[in-house]
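Researcher: Before we compare anything, I want clean individual predictions. No alignment, no superposition, just each chain on its own. First chain goes here; please echo the sequence and then give the C-alpha cells.
Model: Echoing the first chain and its structure:
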Amino acid sequence: MRKQYRINEDRLPPKLIVRFSSKIAQEIKRIDALNKHNIDALNNWKEYLSGIKRYLSDSTIAWDNMGRYPRFPNGAIFIKDFGYNVAYTIQTDYTTNQPYVYVFKVNLKPKQFGLMENKNRINRIISEVLNQYLRRNLILN
C-alpha cells in the first residue's frame, strides 16, 4: 500500500488590490450613467468587471508566477483568459508600501451586455422617437 500525502495550506496568499486607470474608471461611470435604466444588463456587466478584478487580485495570476502571459518591455502583462483582454502592471502604493494591480487597458464589452456606450446613439434614438411622435401627431391632426 502506497502512502499518500496532502498539503494543507492554512493561509492563502493575500489578494492584491486591483485599480483601473482613471480613463477606464471614467468610461465605466459613463457607460453606467448612460444605461441606468437597463438594470439587468448593467448588473451582468458589473459582474463581468468584478470577475476581472477577482481574477487579477489572485497574486499568482497577477505576478504571473508560471510565465504564461506575454510581457512587454515596460513590464506590462497581457492576459486573454476568459476573453478579458487585460493589460496591466504591478505598482506600489507608496502610502501603504503595498503592491497593487494597475489595469491600463481592458475590453469593457458593453455591447455584448446590451449596453449603450456613447451619447450619440442615445441622441439618435431620442431623435427617432421624437420624429415618429411628431409624424403620428401631424398625420393624425
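Researcher: Okay. Second chain, same rules.
Model: Second chain and its structure:
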Amino acid sequence: MIKKILFFVICLVLATSQIFAADLLDLVPSDATLVIRSNVKQVIHIPEVKKAIQEALSKQNKSEFLKGIEETGFNPLNDIDSVVLFMPIEGVQGKDALKASIALIATGKFKVDVALNSIKNNKDVEGKVVVAEEDGFRTITGIDDEKGNTKILFIDDTTVIAGTEKGVNNAKLVKLGKAQSIKSKQDFSATITKLNANASLAAAIDLPDGVRQFFAGNELSKPLSSIMFLSFDLTKTNDVAINVIGDFNKSADMKEVEKSLNSFFSSVKPEELPYDVFTDFFKNHKLSVNGNSAIIATTVSKASVDKLIENFGSPERGQK
C-alpha cells in the first residue's frame, strides 16, 4: 500500500471521536448493517491500549511515520470532531474486504490542499494513486486491482469520507441525494442514535434473518426469534462495564424473552468457561427489560482482562 494514503487512512481509523455526531448518519448508506463508534479520549488512555500503540510505533521508522503525517497537514488526535464507521456484517471476507462497502465519515479540520499536494508531489506513488475531482468533490484513490481500491473523498474542509472505494462512493451517492441514508430505516437509526455516548466503544447491528431463524429453530430460544437489532457498549475505567441490548419487534412477548434469557444464563456454569472474562461476564450479569428492549449489564474485572491479554490464544483452564 502506498505510504501517504496509508498514513492518512490509518490515522482516520485510529482517531474515532469522543462525541458521536448524529448528523453523520445523514451520509451513512441505507444498506449498512453495522455502525461503530469509539471514544478516542478514553481509548488512548487505557494503559493496555497505550502500551500496544507504543510497542507498535517502536517497531516503525518513527521519523518516516511522523513526516508522513506532517506532510498531509493532519493531526489525528486534535483535528477530528466526530466519526462514524459503517459496513455490512455479511459477505465481508478477509481477502475481499476492500471490495465491500466500508467507510469512515469524519468531521473536523482537514487541510485539503496540503493533503492533495502531498500526494501529487510524491513521485513514489505515481500510477498507484489518483488525485481527481468528481461530482464537485476532491478525491484521492489508491489503486489495487487485485485487492480493491481505497478512497478518500473531501466533502469540504470539515468533512471527509475514507474507506473502500465502494463504501466511499455509496456515501457520496447519499450526499448527492441519489441514494437513501440509514435514517430511512427509522427503527435501526433509532437504535444507533441511542448508543451510549460516554462509552469507550459502542456498536449497533441490524441482525440478518439467519439469526432469527437460528433462534426459531429451538423451542427454548424461540421467543428470541423476534429480535431485530443488537447493540452493545464497553466502558473501560479500571474494570470494563458492558451493556448488551436486544431490541425486539413490537409483537414480541417480552416476558417470554426474559424467561428464555434467564434460562440460558442459568444453564451456563461460569467456572467451567475457558477464560476469566467470560466467567466475570456471566457471574456479574444483571438482566432487565425496558419496553421492547432486553438489557444485560455486567462487569469484567481488570485482572481478568490482563489475564486474557497475557494468555491470548490459549484457554486459561481446561474445559470439561
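Researcher: What stands out in the second chain?
Model: DSSP finds eleven helices and twelve strands in the chain. Additionally, The radius of gyration is 22 Å.
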